[in-house]
Amino acid sequence: MSEINDHDLGMHRAITRRDFLNGVAVAAGATFLPTNLLADTDPEKSPNYYPPALSGLRGSHVGAFEALHSLRDGNFWDTAGKPEDTGEDYDLIVVGGGISGLSSAYYFQRAAGGKAKILILENHDDFGGHAKRNEFTAGGRKMLGYGGTFSIESPAPYSAVAKGMIADLGIDVSSYSKDIHKEIYRSQGLTPQIFFDKETFGTDKLVIDPHPLGGSETGDLSVNTTDPWKSFLAEAPIPEKARQDIFNLFHDKKDFLPGLTSTEKKTRLARMSYAKFLTDLVGVSPEVIQLFQAEPNAFFGLGIDAVPAQDCWGLGYPGFQGMNLGPAPGPGQNRDAIRSQEAESYFFHFPDGNASIARLIVRKLIPDAIPGSSATDVVTARANYAKLDDAGSNVRIRLNSPVVRVKHQGEAATAKGVEVVYVRQGKLRTVRTKSCVLACWHVVIPYICEELPEKQKDALSSAAKVPLLYTNVAITNWTSFKKLGMNYAYSPGCYHTNMTLDLAVSIGDYQCSQKPEDPVVIHMSKTPNKPGLPARDQHRIGRVQLYSTQFETMERNVRDQLARTLGPGGFDPARDIAAITVNRWPHGYAYEYNSLQDKFWLEGTETPCEVARKPYGRIAIANADAAAYAYTDAAIDQAYRAVQELVK
Q: How far does Cα 632 stand from its chain's mean position?
């Protein structure tokens, strides 16, 4: 392809004030915001305040993290000043307005018979945490995208507690088969493909993926009459030996650890990476490692250099079909890699991901904030943010309010209450409560609650969350996908390693894109890491990368990747892109234990999350970090446990 310039990408368009405000999310919750955004009035009370419709840089946006970073760096209190006493007292204060925080309020209020006074403090400009809703308008259609938590799903079956909440919210998981319309993409002959980029593989080329490992809800290979392996072997721009190595990897039935029992083999596989398995035992070409490197990113935020071979066996990766491994999990096997038919059948995806779950919980807590009465009408309901922090409501959600200190009023063992200090509109404010749930990210807790035991703070600090970039791109049509016969692309060498057409889900008044000429949302994902380093170090480096990368750089990468991948199908980024929303999560999903990295997990001893989540006086700890399990059911279960520790 010829070199693509900024004009071709559409980067030449003027930057308007609205673009700037989108980038900073019009929040007013940190001392470091521009002074013109630090007004005395509550921004959420404005009828124009509506975070889901903002494009540009979202997720961990400007204004959400600066105070906390200053606290981490040890200089926050040097200039913070004296907190103002709001005079407010509550039965419960929840730090963190994600699904675990909202669930904590839900369970506490239920235990109190609906009479408790509860305040939820959230540092971002919207509730839901990683369950982020992105709204777009293109071609006269309203479209939704998920900016974080994808769906109701889990490798292990949902607990009775989590299922009970889902049912109480009115979600009928069994109805999903009526809501998903796989036939739309299948009828167009769309299949998963691999995009080989010229920087990594010498040329830009799309090739049918003969055996997609990540799977795709939007299409399958059965609709293509061409033998996918024949096409791949003929067209993949890698050396002949590498192509043959890949074919053999999927088809040969060789035992690479002969003479060992199934358990002994799994024990060995738990202690070696999949990259090492492929290189040392199978003997594949380096190009095969390059191709497979980013495959597990979506599960662990890590490549095959840092993911155990045993976990890749559990996920269905090739190379193990001749090793006679028994179906039972091996020592230290990650929960993501343990198959469960019951769990796989319990799946539901809203068009905005699990943001609809967050909205349904908010409706339970503050009915006036989310109009409607069902799990169907919530999809198109417009939240009334002015109602979230209403003095007349028993439950209040205060956005743009990062918490900087949580401390018992006296000794933890005998204290009657907890004092909470937060930042609001550039000022420190104090509230008091009888009990407190810390449902925020665990790495934050040692800085805001210094009185915790050192062992517990160390355990909390070990929860190095997985950095994520979830990008949604609204485009005016998907005719280029139709021409290329593609619904999903795995792009191991690109900025975003995965891109897919939005799931064809219609619920209530919300209708998905029906034909190639309709607007649609493309979902792209990136998990920045540094292959070759220990997992937590890779996550830390990826986190720094996300915080230090400007939106313009991200946008240019998005436009360039779409132009190169879809250009042969007629896609023009300057013409066809309607909006880009980049959901930046430097502190993304909960860190899950790994038999290569975490000795305690392999040996079955006490885990850091068990130490981290212990209650302390009138303070309990929730969040999915408390289970080291990056799924919504964990967030719900940990909220339930935390509340039970307070109300027992």
A: 10
**CA separation for the pair 147, 141 (Å, rounded):** 19
Tokens of 98: 């994600």
Angle, alpha carbons 490-492-494 (nearest 5°): 100
Task: Compute the distance between CA of residue 140 and CA of residue 445 in angstroms, rounded to an integer.
Answer: 45
* Residue-level pLDDT at 648: 83
With 0.85 as the threshold, say if the pTM is over it. yes
**Rounded Cα–Cα distance for residues 96 and 24 (Å):** 20
Query: Which residues on adjacent β-strands are paired with residue 397?
Result: 120
Report yes or no: 641 and 100 within 8 Å, Cβ to Cβ: no
The CA-to-CA distance between both ends of the chain, in Å, stands at 66
Percent of the chain whose predicted confidence (pLDDT) is above 90: 90
pLDDT category of residue 40 using cuts at 50, 70 and 90: low
Identify which of 396, 451, 400 has the alpha carbon closest to the alpha carbon of residue 25. 400
Identify the pLDDT of residue 41: 72
- Count Cβ atoms within 10 A of the Cβ of residue 383 and give its class: 0-12 exposed, 13-18 middle, 19 or more buried: buried
- Rounded to 5 degrees, φ, ψ at 118 are -130, 135
Return d(Cα 398, Cα 405) in angstroms, integer: 16
Provide the β-strand partners of residue 523.
472, 500
Distance CA 513, CA 476 (A): 11
Strands 577-589 and 466-475: antiparallel
User: Where is 406: in which H helix or E strand?
Assistant: strand 403-408
Q: Are 297 and 274 in contact (CB under 8 A)?
A: no
- Distances from the Cα of 255 to the Cαs of 156, 245, 323, 400, 435, in angstroms? 29, 16, 4, 56, 57
Tokens in use for 130? 């990683």
Question: CA-to-CA distance for 399 and 61, rounded, in angstroms?
Answer: 13
What's the DSSP call for residue 83?
P
Q: Report yes or no: 586 and 72 within 8 Å, Cβ to Cβ.
A: no
Rounded to whole angstroms, the Cα distance separating 131 from 358 reads 7
- Give ∠ CA 317-319-325 in degrees, rounded to 5: 90
Per the CB < 8 A criterion, the answer to whether 93 and 504 are in contact is no
Give backbone dihedrals phi and psi of 4, rounded to 5 degrees, phi first: -95, 125
Burial (CB < 10 A; 0-12, 13-18, 19+), residue 160, is exposed
The predicted pLDDT at position 3 comes to 55
Residue 56 contacts residue 580 (beta carbons within 8 Å): yes
Which residues contact residue 605 at a Cβ distance below 8 angstroms, ignoring those fewer than 6 apart? Answer: none
β partners of residue 103? none
